[in-house]
Fold each of these.
Amino acid sequence: MRFYSDNTATAAPEILAAIAEANQGHTIAYGDDPWTQRLDEVLGKFFGTRVRAFALATGTAANSLSLATLSPPWGAIYAHEEAHIGVDECGAPQFFTGGAQLVSLPGEHGKLTCETLRAAVDKHPANVHTVQPAVVSLSQATELGTAYRPAELTAISKLARERGLKLHMDGARFANACVFLDCHPGDVTWRAGVDVLSFGATKNGALAAEAVVFFNLELVRDFEFRRKRAGHLLSKSRFVAAQLLAYVETGVWQRNARRANDFARRIGQAAGTALLHPVEANEVFVHLGDERKAQLRNAGFEFYDWGPQTSGEARFVMSWDQREQDVTALAGALA
Amino acid sequence: MRFYSDNTATAAPEILAAIAEANQGHTIAYGDDPWTQRLDEVLGKFFGTRVRAFALATGTAANSLSLATLSPPWGAIYAHEEAHIGVDECGAPQFFTGGAQLVSLPGEHGKLTCETLRAAVDKHPANVHTVQPAVVSLSQATELGTAYRPAELTAISKLARERGLKLHMDGARFANACVFLDCHPGDVTWRAGVDVLSFGATKNGALAAEAVVFFNLELVRDFEFRRKRAGHLLSKSRFVAAQLLAYVETGVWQRNARRANDFARRIGQAAGTALLHPVEANEVFVHLGDERKAQLRNAGFEFYDWGPQTSGEARFVMSWDQREQDVTALAGALA
Amino acid sequence: MRFYSDNTATAAPEILAAIAEANQGHTIAYGDDPWTQRLDEVLGKFFGTRVRAFALATGTAANSLSLATLSPPWGAIYAHEEAHIGVDECGAPQFFTGGAQLVSLPGEHGKLTCETLRAAVDKHPANVHTVQPAVVSLSQATELGTAYRPAELTAISKLARERGLKLHMDGARFANACVFLDCHPGDVTWRAGVDVLSFGATKNGALAAEAVVFFNLELVRDFEFRRKRAGHLLSKSRFVAAQLLAYVETGVWQRNARRANDFARRIGQAAGTALLHPVEANEVFVHLGDERKAQLRNAGFEFYDWGPQTSGEARFVMSWDQREQDVTALAGALA
Amino acid sequence: MRFYSDNTATAAPEILAAIAEANQGHTIAYGDDPWTQRLDEVLGKFFGTRVRAFALATGTAANSLSLATLSPPWGAIYAHEEAHIGVDECGAPQFFTGGAQLVSLPGEHGKLTCETLRAAVDKHPANVHTVQPAVVSLSQATELGTAYRPAELTAISKLARERGLKLHMDGARFANACVFLDCHPGDVTWRAGVDVLSFGATKNGALAAEAVVFFNLELVRDFEFRRKRAGHLLSKSRFVAAQLLAYVETGVWQRNARRANDFARRIGQAAGTALLHPVEANEVFVHLGDERKAQLRNAGFEFYDWGPQTSGEARFVMSWDQREQDVTALAGALA
């Protein structure tokens, strides 16, 4: 019974079907195919505004290419200290940006606050001696399974705009946040001031498909050169685009996220006071102690430790294709 | 009737079947799945020696990550002036290596010679003022549709070794060369002194699958850090690995390459004296003149111009899934 | 009366004399001159061990080239949150290393502690998902005018060694620390486990001269390629080397540092309870409040604010050539 | 009797005097000093137009920072195959630009021609697959001791402008070219369409002083961040600025260049038919054969071989401070 991560999951049947359907006849490579050509329109409709969208195979590429487009090599990128870009990507943002400086900020339940952000930006005045404020990067849902409310995002984007910063959102679990908030995808992106979104599908039912979505169209600039140069322009681009189209158009995004979120909520309720953070997406963080963790593992539950070595904390991630019976078993074991 | 490129082709049914088959149950992400874990063994068997193999989604990534592993930022990488790494990758090798210098060398029919290579290496003596000789990169098949014979490769690798250079092979069309030469895959790689191969499957029937294959195991070094950091470690790695396994194990590699090569040979024979280079893979380069090219286009044949604007040259690439009737039509039109 | 920084100071007469003396006849460029050739020997004698030393014109270059030699692009470099490399170099270490990640750590009076260092290194386990622990960088004297004791350095270097980290020291004010500690230069470098030192002379009487000093000779590796490639190999290298030789051989290093330190101690004593950090080099940090700072400025004292905008803090730096009467005046004004 | 290179020479007395004169009192560091502040005005007057000028300590830094400001990482930089930036800087332009591609072009006597440039630019169409045309870099005087005439420069700059390229000039020996052409410094720079000049003084009498001079002021953009980040902003900036001011204001630039050029002309005349290139600056390239070279060396003349190992070619460089008697001796030996 695996609760390691949502990227251990399978791809949804709709996604495989879309790939098979796209596998008909010759088509121009490198993005000039009909599937890729539809991305802007379909994602624009999804978000309720005009967008430029680019298909990619990994979330690290989506994040790093976004950040490299938004920040000069001497830029500062502000993010939560748990952010995937700072913790789990082996320095990819630094590689793609040519050495921008990641500034890690604390914040309860995985969220940045205006206060810490303001203080951090103040440390980088406009002179050549220090890196220059360039980007705020938020994760939605956060790395601790919580979701920024539209008002929280708006407050941060307002501050960002005042200080000349661009706002990037790492949406590896965007669908989970959206479903939890029961809001329109536009409400937590462009309407709240997000400039660029890494829109993830892989963790929620795709094979390997992410999109970088520009709401601020002026910022697209050199994105396509950067993507090509990083080896992230797929020749048979139609197969990534087809996944993204199916993800959005068939409703897989919502159905899968809802299923995973529901599982997580059940587990969160079972965990009770062991819970470390509100369950607002498909992840559950609990303090169990080392003994209890060992018991669960002996009972066949697989999951990652969390926090420092002897913290006694654990993370359970619910995938869209988790078996109902496994979730029920875990809830029972945690209750 | 499209003869633009072999990356306009579909994926072979065996490849899609392998993906579907891999889509069962939860598995550890980021390469610790059973499919990825089999790559070394299966490709080792294919090449007839011990290898380390890494799955990737694009050929540019395969080439660039190989070169970055083999060359320091101040290295010189010697390649033919038509090489994909110098002409078609928007400077990706420079990005991945941290600025290594590509040295473009002439050579008949797309092949490097020992003479030009030796002279070029001589220009970079062992001092801090100049970039330092690091890598020779060959394409097999070449960008002009020819194939290096084992003896040619051995001569170059001998020179490379004498001068302290590593030997990289861009095998985006490796299967086509192998089938043409009717040789064992080991004969034109490790037995001929190749250190690292970019082993392409995408152009020959895969969806998106390439492998970097290390024959010189000591050189693997930091490869995995570089791959992760470049956003090229797929989370659902099983789906790329499964393509590579099927490509090799079902014989798709040979069947598809043979089919495309056969088509090319027919077109080459029809082209007669218009032929610019021997047809030794699945590409045909011809001099037709602008008028003749226009006629062919009017007749429904799609293909790329080649060479300088008014050269009157054209390139026809045969894909594995080219329709027999289209090839027959093209042969007739060219005869 | 300027107390902005020690780099507002003049060059010492011995330094100018050494330049003039080196200005005789033709000599081979790029470091093959007799002055540069003596650096290893003279600095080796100074530090009491075998060294490899390289002359540079700026401290940022010295730090960044050191770090780039010690850390791979995916390395983590641990430093105090006030460290010059993180705060005052516009991201130079990231540029030179190809994107290594700076990890900023807190610590009283500008000093790193083993506890925070250990916890930070623990966050970077040995897998491809995170940057890999590579270097600890300490400043001696620190950015807050304090000096690490030999025992403190030894404790940190022991931890560094256990965790596979190299130890770099930013010695922009190395002479000031040495003079304060009244110790042999070797006691706070190689004997305490330092691998590489940025040995600064510019702030303490040189025109523009810094040396990167390798105590761990195996680490020199690619340093010279990196230096050349960064435009930091001066053609008329003799003029930088001559400064460094004079700095060490004439005793300028000690005389100037002692003078500046003595001034600072007087100011520190005058400041009394306003003092924020022990005065152990040539810098004095005080909390005065905004009103008091304005009064001092009206009285003709020039100095930098310190800390956040309304902190009321100020920094006074004593240069080797500070006028005695100005120091007396400042002491009087602060008392 | 050393004829290796003009960077084996001493610094002119006027330069040392200017440094000594600048060594008075405290002054703000990092370029906010009165000497640095005068650079724009003084160099503007020298060139006869408004400029932005930045002081640096090396020519490699001047070239690389210029190119990094003018070219994106995916840019192509076109230069003569003998250009210093491609041959003698260990890949510095690639390091500073983040991996731009140097395109080496042939051309008689070290000069680029419009024909080869046009053909090279044509190879880089406006799509993401190839690097994008960004900069033409010319050396004046060239690496083979010749000088572009104003009309030649104008023709190249016209072509550059038409194709959207910026024009950079490596003026390590700018004074020598200017004196030979007997023209106003503006005639071979901004009036001929040069956007940015690396204005060298080190080879012609300075200690270590180069300036990047922007004629196209819009292009300055991020230059200052790049310089700082590369460790090339000297803290005691006044000492580099003072050299540049003296170099221009005292007429050292002209006097020294004239002296070196005159020597070269004498040597060139003596060499007669052995001469490989017209002598239009302070360098003389001759074909002597290996035997004759050995004889000269036995007679005490020191110089570098040129070309491939057995070419029998040699380079003699005249420095401003060459002894008259040595030049006479060399002329005698060559006649």
Amino acid sequence: MASKIDLNCDMGESFGRYSLGSDAEIVRYVTSANIACGFHAGDPLVMSATVALAAAAGVSIGAHPGYPDLQGFGRRNMELSPAEVEALVLYQVGALAGFARAAGVELVHVKPHGALYNQAAKDRSLAKAIARGVARFSRKLILVGLAGSRLVDAAIDAGLPTASEGFADRAYNPDGSLRPRSLPGAVYADPAAAAAQAVSLAQQGIPITAGSQTHYVPVDTLCIHGDTPGAAAFARAVRAALEEAGIEVRGLAQV
Amino acid sequence: MASKIDLNCDMGESFGRYSLGSDAEIVRYVTSANIACGFHAGDPLVMSATVALAAAAGVSIGAHPGYPDLQGFGRRNMELSPAEVEALVLYQVGALAGFARAAGVELVHVKPHGALYNQAAKDRSLAKAIARGVARFSRKLILVGLAGSRLVDAAIDAGLPTASEGFADRAYNPDGSLRPRSLPGAVYADPAAAAAQAVSLAQQGIPITAGSQTHYVPVDTLCIHGDTPGAAAFARAVRAALEEAGIEVRGLAQV
Amino acid sequence: MASKIDLNCDMGESFGRYSLGSDAEIVRYVTSANIACGFHAGDPLVMSATVALAAAAGVSIGAHPGYPDLQGFGRRNMELSPAEVEALVLYQVGALAGFARAAGVELVHVKPHGALYNQAAKDRSLAKAIARGVARFSRKLILVGLAGSRLVDAAIDAGLPTASEGFADRAYNPDGSLRPRSLPGAVYADPAAAAAQAVSLAQQGIPITAGSQTHYVPVDTLCIHGDTPGAAAFARAVRAALEEAGIEVRGLAQV
Amino acid sequence: MASKIDLNCDMGESFGRYSLGSDAEIVRYVTSANIACGFHAGDPLVMSATVALAAAAGVSIGAHPGYPDLQGFGRRNMELSPAEVEALVLYQVGALAGFARAAGVELVHVKPHGALYNQAAKDRSLAKAIARGVARFSRKLILVGLAGSRLVDAAIDAGLPTASEGFADRAYNPDGSLRPRSLPGAVYADPAAAAAQAVSLAQQGIPITAGSQTHYVPVDTLCIHGDTPGAAAFARAVRAALEEAGIEVRGLAQV
């Protein structure tokens, strides 16, 4: 039974004149901030302010690198060479680390964004490229990936600490994969349902059922979505439920 | 009489399919590389390769941040707020520092590019913003500016080590400013002329004449242009002339 | 006494994941839409949808070209060569005209955006470059500029129809210039104040006072800001006041 | 036996400070120019100059739209929604058409670039999206696609005139597909080999062999690569061989 878990949220996804998310509210409920690095979202001013916000709240800081696709918000699949991916991860991690250093805080983790995260869950070569990009910067950075994914495997192979991510507000298939967003019921509308699943993921992990057998994939961190309406209500509900269940909510470095 | 000088050159200014400069040749003659950071030129793959090239050649590595203006190659004046400039300098320095760290070498200096460099030579507020961006990353980084410029003043005020730059292949006005490129004779076509001026700048500095009085502004580093035809011939001529004159050519950290 | 006036509003300034403005509401009150063309804001999907929205509402369509500066929302001054400006205006006008053509509507006007508009109000060479860019596409396009500005002069010199713009919600200086936003009282917070000024601008124009003399610069179109909180309330108030005063509110082609 | 053929070449693929291709030379040998539209390459100034160059040479002008991926030169596969593709094609066609109109010449054709072209050769939904984007601008534009591809099918379905493209300097597989560039012999190094294949493609088409049967897919236009070393020599050799064989080389509108 896990007695501790991390809550992470994507932050700093505004850009210039464009505002997105409710970082100032969400930061009160999470323990890790994945901060956009200027490729799929974010700009230098936004990064500076977001690092300061997270640091002031005592929230762990991570880089949230994405594809160079602001228009698609990094959610459109792209086919880049492994060398390109490795270099763009290293670039974005370095850029964010500069702001962390300026703020006097440590960079703790790296979580790829959107299509980069999703493609790397299944594509071994892409996953390895991401891991190399992170490892070239530092072997102390925790690489966050979908629980049970190629990305987690690649992180382990590269000698990186890793964290397996679960989703409180998403339905899982019996094989442990996420129910596609296109299907009904894929995303929970009710904060209470998300809160209940958060507790179960923290305590047991993701259930994988094959025939009559069920085993559980442990989860180190739960993703809180920050750019949806009612995001803060979900975050509050999840956090409260975890604490009520006696689960310690703390940053990845302490999990 | 200066007995040592640094030779610096802008490098890594290719982008994707587009090649620019003759870095592999020039790197043999210089002691410092100002590496583009992806805003006015350069991309993560180019940065990775250029850092490796410079490191292998034993050349000091510096960040070469510019305006976010790839189409204008960072040469078009822009009016950004001081906060924007501070943040974009910190961003680019961090990004380049990541590649340096990955290559096991130190980041030694920062030299702003193009319009950012030129505007900061005269604009105190802009110069201070650049210096703050660099200082937030590290107070050990050497900030390179036009000799006698506001940027050098701002670096000193910010407690940064600084290096004053001169140009071997550009004519100077009697007041020590550079003769505008639009005027005839502003840029030397003859490598021998550049070589001679390099020696004189290293030994005496830039002459400033007021009335019958001349004093000299010392120069710590000479800029070698890398993206012009015949750039390598200039670099070779300048380097040879300096060594013949008994001037030690070495990186900024050693000047 | 003017008996008719146009009401224009910037539209289509969303980008990818980022939403801005309340176009669907504002479009009910205005007679001309200045549609962003993908440089300072807007993307092809947004442009397509915005042209369809304006066409369905019977609102005249214009191109709203800006500097290539998404991060600065086209509001940061840039120094581009006249040839660059001419070409970027022609590019953006052509792109928007393609969507208008696809929707079966005419492109009626061009209004530069942000820093391009403001710099062209004072800079004759820039204003002429914009006018050339428009004229190369068509001499029937109406070029909208600040009343009394260089841009209006340049449009006339280039043989273009032109429209002089006034601002209902901005205070004017005695010399007819806009009171800078940095000063108190520069922007009216009260829709009623904007509505009253709209009527006065439509009926009399902008008062220019020199000594004891006052003359009036006529205004053909009034700008309604769409991206501020309460924008729709302002638009509704201005429209209602104009109609109550017996001023016909109609598109530029009919003014 | 075909007695006429078009020769097309990608042009205007420079960007800002970056030069690519030898347009001024190549334009003498081809009859159609596919001009980059600012997404994968090209910028407004380059487009203006390239349209002028092609118009002066009497070469037909076409739009060459690509993915919004300057760094990847539009050669990296992306997964965009059909609506996004339709809109980005319409955008780029409109932008280029503006320059053509300004130069007093007709826009004759559209040829997608790089990954957009290659993915559309196989992906029916993507091909249809491109065809819709073109058709929304004009049903008179000729859509150029790989001979035998989904893109040609989609153009026909959309009621567009279409042109089937062959490659003089690329080896074909027995099934009519192009031999992948990764395999030896995929690209001819010898201009004479390209010239011979050009004549055979023009006269017979692409041979498709199944068992003992061979049939031929006709070719309306041949692609001349402009950004490779020796491109002009290939273009000259191909053009000369076609004329020697009595094949008329002329623009797509006349083929």
